[in-house]
Each structure stands twice: as structure tokens, then as C-alpha cells.
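Here we describe the complex-level prediction in full. Unlike the single-chain runs in Section 2.1, the two entities below were treated as one system.
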Amino acid sequence: KAGVTQTPRYLIKTRGQQVTLSCSPISGHRSVSWYQQTPGQGLQFLFEYFSETQRNKGNFPGRFSGRQFSNSRSEMNVSTLELGDSALYLCASSLTGQGTEELFFGEGSRLTVL
Amino acid sequence: GDSVTQMEGPVTLSEEAFLTINCTYTATGYPSLFWYVQYPGEGLQLLLKATKADDKGSNKGFEATYRKETTSFHLEKGSVQVSDSAVYFCALEATGGYQKVTFGTGTKLQVIP
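The structure predicted for the assembly as a whole is:
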């Protein structure tokens, strides 16, 4: 079956702009979570969605937001981009989001902010 | 809060050498523990997991045992291959965390022929 698909794979923005990233989970998976990966901080949890509801949120400013649609696809948005937002943004899906479930990751969207 | 500490890399080993990557954690309660692997140009994928104390996770010749008394989950493999070259992440999820997985910083492993 198809894996987790993230688009776009690469993008370049300038400071102050906003960006929207998309994630299509594995068919049947209803939980989608987002992570930011940087060389200095590693992987950091952004938020998790299940049935269009945000159930958990990491320690990121309000500029980072997300949503989930009825077909479980998810988007995340970053407004007023800063240089420090340059990172690989990873989406992961699982069946229900319960603690022992395996996360299935996409290949990520690499954002560069100039 | 929850945290995971793993040995810094890069780790360079010759083929067929023994591998240990240390991982310790801090968490309340009884978290689930994971090792994820990221091969070059690919997304992270689960390597193995353990959900309670003294559980041993294993996959592809890799093993890790959930040690609550030492809060550790060290990854081991008896004989590494070139194809094992990747970045390895230790991770935990607290009970009821809804996929709020805390990852270590990753350890890059390079296996040379």
C-alpha cells in the first residue's frame, strides 16, 4: 500500500512569508502527527490530529498551526517565517495514535527560509 | 519533561563488528520505547520497540531491552553490515501521549567494508 506522502518535497521562502505543507497518511490511518527536524534540535513534536481534532501540541509558537480534513489528510501552516524555521518537516501517520503504535513517516518537506 | 539521551556519533565500524548505541531516558510513568532508523534519502522507519519493563525488542538482528532500573534502552547488533549504515534514533512515548514521541538526537552509524 502507498506510504505517507508529503508535498512539496522542497521549498524556498523568504522571511515574513507563510507556507503550507501537506501530508496524505497511509490509507486507513486516522492519526497524523508533525515533527520538525533540525541538526541542532533533532526531531521535535509539533502536533497530532485525529478525526479532525488536535489532541496534542508541542512547544512551538502560535505561528505554527495545522488542521486535518475528513479524509485524514493534514496540512500544517507556518506564518511570518523566520530564518530559524528552516528545517525538514516530517509527517507521520498511525491507525489511532495510541502510544504503542508504530509511526509511519513520510520523506519530509525541506523548507529553506532566506 | 520527558527526554532521551543517546550517544553522539558518528560511529564508524568495520563490517562484522559488534554494535552498541547507548540510550537513556527520563520520563514519568511507564513509557513505550522505540528505535527508529533513517537510511540515506529515506524517511524514518521503526526498527524495534518495547512497551514494558524487561521486554526485548528485536528486528533484523538488532536487539534492545527495556531496563527500567537503569532507564536505558541500548541498541545492539552482533555483526553489522555495510547496509546498516544509517542514523539511529532512540525515542519514547509517554502513556496517553497521542504520538507525542520524544526523540534522541540520533546517532549516525557508518560501516566500512
